[in-house]
Amino acid sequence: MVHEHRRRYLVIHVLSPKNIGKGLLIKLTRDRTRELSEEEFEAVKPWLVYYENGWAIVRTGHLGTRKLTEIFKGLDGAKLKEGELKLRIVGTSGTIKGAFLKLIPEKARVGKTYREGQNA
Question: Could you tell me the residue range of the domain that residue 51 belongs to?
């Protein structure tokens, strides 16, 4: 059975500034997706599912993975009042569990779970 909309999870590491909250990351992503056509937005539909200590997991559709990656590459180096935004795209996974366990280093997830960033 082939699903029309398969999910992908993009893992991003925000390197600096250290005080970036998930609200600002959501706002920056939302501002960039407003520039997309309706068709492109339907493919991307980003959703921040995890953010803890600079590590983010963003859900997208499988057809929007490339565009979402471009959006985050475009955000790298953005000037913010907190300082210059530096981020790194770590990788993509087909499951949130895989994204969390395989792409986020063990020392960054000690005591954390991928379910809404709550403590284990």
Answer: 7-108
